[in-house]
Design goal:
alpha+beta; 5 helices; 7 strands; 23% helix; 27% strand; disordered N terminus
């Protein structure tokens, strides 16, 4: 079953798109009054700040683009998504009101305690790189990041990579955990769109240490582009 957690509207601040050309506009900048959580804050480790600075330099020539990330979806995004993909006969206006109060899972914890990350997108290479720091409230085995939290970031990163081709949802996620990730350490998720077959998008992902000497995780994912002519319910 397709999983709704992979709809990447939260970082992009734009309505769902019908085709690849329009989908790429999701990565464009637009005025948003919400706080952008993909910017340095006092909880960021020096390695996270260092890598952030390195990728910001790569953005100067336009080859890479930093993706903003917000806690809540703009009202227009919710309305457009509801209109395009959800049968209005099965939903009441009250649900949209509730959705406006909902928070994105990866941004719902206090700064430094949960998911601290920033993503960068390269449209030519069809890659998304996520620099991630797992906070103290993401613990699994004492001292290490919970496997589910790691899976969340893999899903978020590969999903962001997939929607460069259109709004998509996760159909399958395979993860091999090679080594545990220490709490509060900084790791790099490197995601690559490998293949497109119709509405199927195949994406790979690795998680490495900041110095690229340790391979923590390898994963593959399958995403399905949403058909605007079909409802989700």
């Amino acid at each position: 079953m397709l999983r709704s957690c992979a709809v990447r509207l939260r970082a992009l601040g734009a309505p769902p798109a019908r085709g690849p050309g329009a989908a790429r506009r999701l990565f464009s900048s637009e005025e948003v009054t919400q706080k952008d959580y993909a910017l340095p804050n006092p909880s960021w480790d020096k390695d996270l700040r260092l890598l952030f600075g390195q990728f910001m330099k790569k953005c100067e020539d336009g080859s890479w683009k930093r993706l903003p990330s917000y806690r809540q979806n703009p009202s227009q995004v919710l309305q457009d998504f509801h209109t395009r993909f959800v049968d209005p006969r099965l939903r009441k206006e009250e649900q949209l009101i509730k959705l406006k109060k909902a928070q994105q899972f990866t941004r719902s914890l206090e700064e430094g305690l949960g998911f601290e990350y920033v993503m960068f997108h390269n449209s030519i290479e069809k890659r998304v790189v996520c620099i991630f720091q797992g906070g103290l409230h993401l613990q699994g085995v004492p001292g290490f990041v919970h496997g589910g939290a790691i899976a969340t970031m893999v899903d978020a990163t590969t999903g962001t990579c997939a929607i460069s081709e259109g709004i998509a949802m996760t159909a399958n996620l395979n993860i091999n955990y090679r080594k545990p990730i220490p709490l509060s350490s900084v790791v790099v998720l490197n995601s690559q769109l490998q293949k497109i077959e119709g509405r199927k998008l195949y994406v790979s992902c690795t998680i490495q240490s900041a110095d690229e000497k340790i391979l923590y995780t390898e994963a593959t994912a399958l995403f399905i582009k949403l058909d605007p002519d079909k409802r989700l319910t």
